[in-house]
Amino acid sequence: MVKVLKLKMVAKVSVNNQEARTAQQHIRNRSRLDVIAAILREVTGREATKTRIMYGAFLSSTQMREYVPFLLNNGLLIKVEQTIYKITEKGMRFLTLCDQLNNMIGDKWNYRVYG
Predict the structure, then answer these.
(1) How many domains does the chain have?
(2) Which residue range(s) make up the domain with 83?
(3) Are 38 and 114 in contact (CB under 8 A)?
(4) According to the model, what pLDDT value does residue 106 have?
(5) Are residues 71 and 97 in the same domain?
(6) Same domain, 20 and 43
(7) 38: nearest Cα among 93, 101, 98
(8) Are residues 24 and 40 in the same domain?
(9) Which residues pair with 77 in a beta bridge?
(10) Could you please report the per-residue DSSP string of the chain?
(11) CA distance 4 to 56
């Protein structure tokens, strides 16, 4: 009886690992707009450090080095202190437009502009 219970536990862990891999594949295949929206969502309503943004938006350090300067240069994000960032009014408008696009086409096409 004990061996049977152990086998069931192993099988359950295996299923969970498979589900985790599937979720990671989805994140790996996000579009640039999806990544930008995820970053901006992390700093909406609060200031955030690079680490908080990275973990909250599921980004690598390489992606952070690519996207943060892009967002700063385009006025969607501002640097409050050395490593603390905040969303701008333009960034809020961007997220509003993403929401509107998702409301228009998201349900019909099973597609979302952001995660």
Answers:
(1) 2
(2) 31-109
(3) yes
(4) 65
(5) yes
(6) no
(7) 98
(8) no
(9) 87
(10) -HHHHHHHHHHHHHHHHHHHHHHHHHHHT--HHHHHHHHHHHTTTS-EEHHHHHHHTT--HHHHHHHHHHHHHTTSEEESSSSEEEE-HHHHHHHHHHHHHIIIIIHHHT--S--
(11) 39
> The tokens 């943004």 sit on which residue?
53
Specify whether 73 is located in the same domain as 84.
yes
In whole angstroms, how far apart are CA 57 and each of 33, 39, 45, 107, 113?
Answer: 13, 6, 15, 23, 15
Based on the domain organization, do 23 and 39 belong to the same domain?
no
pTM for this prediction:
0.69
Residues 21, 74: one domain? no
- The pLDDT of residue 103 is 82
**Positions of the chain with pLDDT under 50:** 1-17, 19-27
